[in-house]
Design brief:
The structure is a homohexamer of 315-residue chains.
Chain A lengths: L32 E6 L14 H8 L14 H4 L2 E6 L8 H17 L3 E6 L5 H8 L5 E6 L19 H7 L3 E11 L7 H8 L3 E4 H20 L3 E7 L21 H9 L5 E8 L10 H25 L1
Parallel strand pairs in A: 1-2, 1-3, 3-8, 4-5, 4-7, 5-6, 7-8
Helix pairs in contact in A: 1-9, 3-4, 4-5, 7-8, 8-9
Chain lengths: 315, 315, 315, 315, 315, 315
């Protein structure tokens, strides 16, 4: 079912800033894809502010339009897509409860057959989302990030934003050998996360290997690893270089350009992406909205991928 | 009829940024007061950007809550208030047509018995709003601003943002002797506006007179001049000092503090305010959201005034 | 015992940024006054970032020098003053544990006879500090702020930054009738905090009363209420107008100027201030270091007050 | 005739900010190349501010010096070059009249045998410039941009900044098959512009093709297409990635780096460039002058190209 | 002789940014008043950047127009006023030589009977200006500043920006008992400057005395002290509160508002001001051009004063 | 001897900001490597502010951790490394004296067998550092920069920041044919520096040659040129593109990315680097700390190189 895109014809500085100016609804039953905000940053280890991410990504996403320049098709032509608002939080100071609330919200979406595309929030939110999305069977994971996020804990918390994929792997939500971690870089105080990922069979593509492997090579690795499995795509904005994403909590120099990120994402066409998120956009550290624009654009491109995946499913 | 304020209980960085987090509706029939955005800055003579004002004021207005600390009452308890979105514009490059479109939109609101509270946009929008609000009879005008905005034209345009109250006066929409212009300052290239206002019988309170008159004195002048007439309140954010409102197109140093502005507005309690606007918030020139926060707060205080005016009417 | 101020003669952009460029030591036994950082903002309800406050206040406090222009004396001539670093936190995601850790740190200082002057952090830190400072007997409280911070809870947390003085009052750490709350303003969603403060006998000076009372009047109220009791002074930077303190989490327009704040603080000379804090400086929202400069200057003035209090004690 | 470059020896923060610190004159008769500002942004569809472009580019262009590091020659040695100020505008609210005024100004330059190098302003100004520059015969067009700018109209205006090259093509000012559009990307709401360009025979180099074609390949395409025809070079700063040009109205992620842009421009040496512009620098959205520095540098490189073209002509 | 003000009618974002958009000339013989830039900050003790002051003040001064709102007269109607550019510097790393170069430049102006109005630069430039302006006889000094600038030396330099008025007093260029220092505040590391000023008979108005004295009181003190002597007016932008002037090297909280500064300056009408400067505007630390706008406005008001002084002389 | 890295385990926003959170000591006798700040920018020719570099780099360097992701080793495991503070300056207005003071400080370090890693400061500081480091024998120089810095003088100064390597070469501190200058670009007013470098046998790698040579090619040139000679590595942050280093005094578009810079530095493993600096970080022109983060990361990588060099020496 197509989406009503009338609002997208208006001047882009007008109107209510829903994601992509898609319709806003809290009645998600009829949707193919729900765009969701998770305004939570209680899991950060350094600079907070990602709680403001969903609102700012919504704001800037008015820059997005319908037709993808590479495919000349619109995700809205074939899928019913809406902004379903933010996950309601009632205990934002309690990471464990918040994790449960997020998981519960997504479980309802998934149970209704709706695929979620999320704007975070810090990376800790991917764990509860995976609890919903991979509730029935483990999924493959394509993970774009400067950090493995498979550390065990920090300051006593196992839910913090450097740990979600360790938790997810421990819970059997993601398959180690079907997981790729792309863009890893930056110094570390202990090798724990790197070691865990490797021990779990995850494929780590360090940033200093990228020049040799190339974007096409990364795409090939992803496609071969994941095949036609259901795959969850998690895009940490700090996978981009800090110049393309200054507004984030844990920047590491030497990352991807947005041009590379677009090539990478477009290389994933046809994969069965059943859910995705764009996380760690922290507007208080941004300048000129560079980061939220990158985040919104990545969301749009992923939306196109998810739409194509759904079309592929129909066949 | 009270307003649903449930969304105002949520953390302020979550949810859709309607004005004050009031309900959003395009069906304004049942409303007492409609909050409207006019995302138009085609009338500026210097620095543009006020087209982004409604969206940023909406964003920051999530900081506003229900109970006014001076009255300990909530505007939402007695009035049905909503955000009705932005005036749809179809010819944003054509000032004359846009003026007509704005006037037409407000005429529908006024005809439905709804009082409008507007976030601009540049000051040129007050003229078409007045064409709707004062369609049946001329109104009094309380005009807070650094500039008289009674100039004749600039660069050949009679609709530009330095002229709305000359046009309104020429059209008989506002009564000269029932008009107060408060906060006027800054050098001028010709005395035309100052002269017109004075010739029209408008009371100009220059900023350099404020120390002597005092805020209470200004309030008294307003109350005595306006009495119980229907009054339109127009609040140009550049009436504030540039320090309190850097994000505006034509700043003039030596203006009001927000504390004085709050005292001034609170002094107007009980006046029959039938419509109001807050204009000239230009986010691209703002820093730390200082200006949009001032704008949002002034809107909230005016909303309280308008609610009380309506309650007074009922009696 | 005087303090070594040699480092304060160097160009202000050089050297390690301790508070005021005072000596740094973790051996606080011999000190009269310890300057402490509490880099914690887990209690904020809206915009985070105060965790970065201590570091930025330290940085900007290099602008401070020795001689106070109103007394022409230096706090360092009579007291042994040092920067003792930040409270070590081991469980930053757990508000209850963090509260205990902060209290434990300050208990050691207090037990050693050292008076603490703190840079926060969000306002939730004042409660554990009071648990140390008022452990033996309840203290008077002079509380400069836009908010009463006597709300009960938010999102299920009783430790959040709107609640510290309710907790402190419930625990008998502060005496209601010896508490003044100065600068209160801004709308609220429920009147709970205002009501609690009033019921507890606290003197609330709302901002809209300040024009009438005057700074001298506020000083008089403080002096008469507090007398020669031990008093804790808590200075929330959002008591200042947002123009003077844009870098804070919950700005409310219409606050104090720094000039008024200086007059106010200087009016407190001779009070027996046994501890103090400057909180809610959130650098990510600041611009041009305006807020951290205000914070650093207030700390310096309070340091002068605390030094004089100690000298008074000696007599 | 060489240019007086004495002012370029002074410290770069001193003196009047003419373009490149070249002489300022309104008497352009004796010039080879005139640098012109068009401070007009009445044609933007989204974020305004390019009206401030000429002034800020002038300001930052003091960073430019005489000798090009690749050729070790100076454009000022062989050509008489000056800043002739901004196009005087008398009807800035009226796009049609403004278009005529711009065209009239450039017609005088062209009639005097002076080649214009322009700093905009939004892209709508290229159409009236082409009306002057291509008045006698159609020209080839090398168009660097994220957008084709061959859309038909928006909000009822045929002069807006997404349409100049459609108008120019309709008027026979540019030859479709001699036009290259380089860097095109970003989603669109309708395919109209893409389709028009293709139907007109223009060569579109989409950004997602650039990795394959390479900068050298683009240069080859330009040289082969254009040959020794008179060519107009239009450089929309949003052809650069938003990271290199955040200060623009319609940023699209995934664009060129300045390094690529320099290689591209330097590849055009020897082409018969009879006029050029750098447009869409919008300082209110810039940070750290990144965009105006890029704009100024591109102008300098184009100035070198135009000088060489003139020398080539002489032979 | 009146000044050509034609350029001041144009849109304010266009044209070359001379001071106030006054004519630019290096032939100052026929002038009554010359506006001069001194782009030098080699004398700062802390944060540099005032070298960029003249250019940014010029840029923002386009906001200034002709008619003063308090007098409704224009300085340009009665005086020949121009921007004569920046003082050429040939040895910017050598403070002593630079001091001589500045003095030499102003001597030529003074010898030609031209009164200088200067935009700095740091405060060290006032000393060489005084060497020219007071060459024949000592002058009175009205000095608006947070600091006395009568310190002896710092880091071995007697020319640094905290010392100009000590040097000027030592040289007999200013009369101690005819000198007023207004707005002094902030802590100091040694009392040297305060002490020198007092010993020299200078009247120091500390900021903490201003509430009692009032602006009118300060004006009275100035008028009584100075009488009809020739007076030099030096306006350090850091006399303003950092909120009104964040872009400066040595901010001290608790300063004047621009409104007070305007009242103060307007109170000086009729004094025989033979020269003046506005110094210490440091654009790299500014935000939203707040400081340069304040600087430009103060320059405009002082220009009005200087014009009236000249008219008074004629009588 | 390993370094105490305990402080590096704490949350990164806490604690005193020493370089990398390494221990702070002024007793450098036992050190292998000393990290030093030189807060001096008296040599800049354009935009000042690098005096604030050491403090801001220290601040941001808390982001650095121990283990290098490419080697999985920590520099702190094998070397005794500390922050020894800033070079004390007593005559900051006198370039010649300051040069001597810097040289004297480093001489003491070198005489104690400590290798220095410096954060500047402008590039003029490299000359006095080389006077210490190369006192006994000339060294090879790997120089990453947009400018050759072999100009003779500017405004009469031979110590300014465009001249250090001319002075060093004239003094026989560096060997011309063992010097590489990498990343040179930007226009120049005279070819003096380029010519001197070439005449001295220095290898200049212009930026426009980099696409052809490649990073690996540059690394090869360095290794072949330098061999196992003692080499000094000087990293001017403006060698990076302005997008990666906006906070610098003399930006030139078209520079290196940080990713290339990391590859380049990592290619130098094993060279006998006896000293290094990172200069020209000017925080007042930075945004979002992009430049200081790049600077801190480069320092960390160079620290790893220096540690490996020392280990190599031991063998």
């Amino acid at each position: 079912m197509p989406t009503d895109t009338k609002a997208m014809m208006d001047p882009r500085f007008t109107g209510m800033p829903t994601f992509m100016r898609a319709p806003y609804t809290t009645d998600y039953k009829a949707l193919d894809i729900a765009m969701v905000g998770v305004a939570y940053d209680g899991g950060v280890s350094n600079r907070p502010g990602a709680r403001h991410g969903p609102r700012e990504i919504r704001n800037v996403s008015s820059m997005m339009r319908t037709l993808n320049p590479t495919t000349r098709t619109s995700p809205y032509d074939t899928c019913n897509i809406a902004d379903v608002g933010d996950v309601p939080l009632t205990a934002m100071y309690d990471h464990a409860k918040t994790t449960d609330e997020i998981a519960a919200f997504y479980t309802k979406l998934v149970d209704a057959g709706v695929r979620p595309l999320t704007a975070g929030g810090d990376h800790s939110i991917s764990y509860p989302i995976l609890r919903a999305v991979a509730a029935k069977e483990p999924v493959a994971l394509i993970h774009f990030d400067a950090h493995c996020d498979t550390w065990d804990e920090f300051q006593g918390s196992k839910f913090m934003h450097g740990a979600p994929f360790r938790r997810a792997h421990e819970d059997g939500l993601i398959m180690g050998e079907k997981t790729l971690q792309i863009g890893i870089r930056g110094s570390q105080i202990i090798p724990d996360g790197w070691d865990y990922s490797e021990a779990a069979g995850m494929k780590i593509i360090f940033m200093h290997q990228v020049e040799d492997i190339g974007i096409d090579g990364i795409v090939d690795m992803c496609r071969q690893t994941v095949g036609d499995m259901p795959v969850y795509l998690t895009f940490d904005i700090d996978g981009l270089d800090p110049v393309y994403a200054p507004g984030t909590g844990t920047p590491e120099v030497g990352g991807f350009t947005t041009r590379e990120a677009l090539s990478f994402l477009r290389g994933l066409r046809g994969l069965n992406i059943i859910g995705a998120d764009v996380v760690e956009v922290a507007p208080p550290f941004d300048s000129s909205n560079i980061t939220s624009l990158a985040g919104a654009t990545m969301m749009y491109e992923i939306l196109c991928l998810m739409t194509e995946a759904l079309k592929g499913q129909e066949k």
